[in-house]
């Protein structure tokens, strides 16, 4: 057992949903008691100390703030070296910056080097759980899982599925993508604090055959996550409409292939209508809200009130 003394802030509900101060709890002089890796007690230091063994050593962090670890619901570890690359909207940005950076991950040693640095940066900044995109290379998923496992970190990740409308060196096939994903699921999902996410990059870079394979994989492994992008940029939305003319909307493309379900996390979700939001809520799918990226690439604004009204979990 150990005890940490500092200012402590934690949430009992969503403080952004209502102005009710009971959604959070703050102790100016607080004590956090940890027993065998689990929080045993938290409260005012003076009151809590009286209930603890007299010889329990207390580590004093007075003047500092203890908060729960942050959770990043959508992040790309291969983009670590291109943070701040400016001057383009989404589709041009992918071609100009993201795809060339991801091509470097064909080298397994490079993938491991970046994965280690990425995990260390997350933890250094207080992020203790993350849902992470890899690259199309299966060993990119191995690399990020290995790095997280070495730090006993809670992390969900997956190899990207991408077989069309992207550089040739970053393409897999419906068959190879499914086989690689299945092998990674069997190797990593549920191992320690790790989980696997079936990861089509977005509908624009996956053929109907690949999305069909991804949907079958999701049905075969219902406790895995699904992680992809949805309705981030208007040019992207328009291209999706041309590529999948029989679908009502961008979300409906995924729905037609069995990819809208509980444990599906859709990043961005900017350009959606009420029917899409109702479907997301009914399926228990979730949205990952990325304000910095949205503003940086000029993609648009996330309608948080509408998402909350629909009952969609947002992170």
Summarize the structure.
This protein is α/β, with parallel strands linked by helices. It has 11 helices and 13 strands. The chain has helices at residues 45-49, 90-103, 108-124, 138-150, 174-188, 208-220, 234-243, 250-256, 274-283, 291-296, 304-310, and strands at 2-11, 24-35, 38-44, 58-66, 70-76, 127-133, 154-158, 160-161, 194-200, 225-230, 264-268, 286-288, 313-314.
Word description of this protein:
The chain is an alpha/beta fold and 315 residues long. Helix content is 37%, strand content 26%. It has 11 helices and 13 strands. It has helices at residues 45-49, 90-103, 108-124, 138-150, 174-188, 208-220, 234-243, 250-256, 274-283, 291-296, 304-310, and strands at 2-11, 24-35, 38-44, 58-66, 70-76, 127-133, 154-158, 160-161, 194-200, 225-230, 264-268, 286-288, 313-314. The strands form 2 sheets. Strands 5, 6, 7, 8, 9, 10, 11, 12 and 13 form a 9-stranded parallel beta sheet that branches. Helix 3 crosses helix 4 (138-150). The relative contact order is 0.09.
């Amino acid at each position: 057992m150990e005890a940490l003394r500092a200012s402590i802030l934690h949430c009992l509900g969503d403080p952004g949903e209502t102005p009710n101060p009971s959604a959070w709890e703050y102790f100016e002089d607080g004590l956090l008691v940890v027993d065998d890796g689990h929080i045993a007690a938290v409260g005012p230091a003076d009151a809590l100390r009286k209930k603890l063994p007299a010889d329990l050593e207390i580590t004093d962090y007075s003047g500092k703030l203890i908060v729960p670890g942050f959770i990043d619901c959508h992040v790309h570890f291969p983009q670590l070296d291109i943070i701040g690359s400016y001057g383009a909207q989404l589709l041009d940005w992918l071609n100009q910056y993201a795809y060339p950076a991801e091509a470097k991950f064909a080298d397994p040693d490079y993938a491991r080097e970046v994965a280690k640095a990425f995990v260390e940066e997350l933890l250094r900044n207080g992020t203790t759980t993350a849902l992470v995109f890899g690259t199309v290379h299966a060993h990119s998923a191995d690399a990020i899982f290995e790095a997280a496992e070495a730090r006993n970190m809670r992390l969900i990740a997956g190899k990207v599925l991408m077989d069309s409308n992207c550089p040739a060196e970053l393409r897999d096939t419906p068959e190879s993508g499914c086989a690689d994903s299945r092998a990674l699921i069997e190797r990593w999902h549920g191992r320690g604090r790790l989980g696997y996410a079936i990861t089509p990059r977005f509908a624009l870079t996956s053929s109907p055959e690949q999305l069909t394979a991804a949907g079958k994989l999701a049905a075969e492994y219902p406790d895995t996550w699904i992680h992809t992008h949805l309705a981030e940029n208007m040019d992207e939305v328009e291209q999706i409409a041309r590529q999948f003319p029989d679908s009502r909307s961008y979300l409906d493309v995924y729905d037609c292939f069995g990819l809208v379900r509980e444990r599906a996390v859709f990043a961005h979700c900017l350009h959606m209508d009420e029917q899409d939001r109702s479907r997301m809520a009914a399926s228990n799918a979730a949205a990952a809200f990325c304000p910095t990226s949205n503003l940086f690439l000029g993609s648009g604004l996330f309608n948080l009130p509408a998402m909350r009204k629909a009952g969609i979990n947002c992170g």
